[in-house]
Design brief:
By secondary structure, the protein is of the alpha/beta class. It has two domains: 67 residues, Ribosomal Protein L25, Chain P (Beta Barrel); 157 residues, Alpha/beta knot (3-Layer(aba) Sandwich), CATH 3.40.1280.10. It has seven helices and twelve strands. The chain is elongated. The mean pLDDT is 93.
Amino acid sequence: MRDTPRLYVARKLAERAEHALEQDQAHYVRDVMRLKPGDPLRLFNEGDGEWLGFLTQATRKTVTLRIEKKLAEVAPPPDIDFVFAPLKHARLDYLVQKATELGARRLRPVITQRTIVGRVNLERMRANAVEAAEQCNLVFVPEVAEPLKLDRLLTGWEEGRALIHCDEGAEGQDTLAVLKGLRLPAALLVGPEGGFTPEERAALRRLPFVTAISLGPRIMRADTAGTAALALVQATLGDWQP
């Protein structure tokens, strides 16, 4: 069953429901995977869970399927938000995909003083999250939030949610011990390529819900820092724990 092709379908998934696939998915099923009527597919979304379906038609004009039975319920990851300064093009695609694979429940772009991306393509971010969820057997797709400026994000911060801040100034601490002292819900904040400004770092340090962590002695690129930090958070607070 794990080798059965898997697709995200936004429409309602239910027993005996029939759907015609959108053009891109129809091309993938018919021309890339070369599936034929009667072949199985796994279908999922964040509202209805995962279902087993079978192709009923695969022509140049139409690819249709029929849903047969439920395979799994929706399975949200731990309540960890990934808050990040957007990067350019392929590196943002990579970061969104890896954050999805690592189990971020929400993807929240934040605009800092050194953020170099002027416009955030939320549809592209959503498409990358869906693709990652399809590939790594998630029965969930993270929410993609509208971008906010850092000061507005902090002013409206959700009560009771810890904010973990990757800060090169925290070098020398025991990062794992610091993280193990926190509790969910939580969010991880990763800055832009040039890092946070001194003013932004000072503002973060003053907030009682913010905890600074170090990612070690080396300076990482923003996409590397994001994936490394999220792995640490999942290992200490999330579902990587034994």
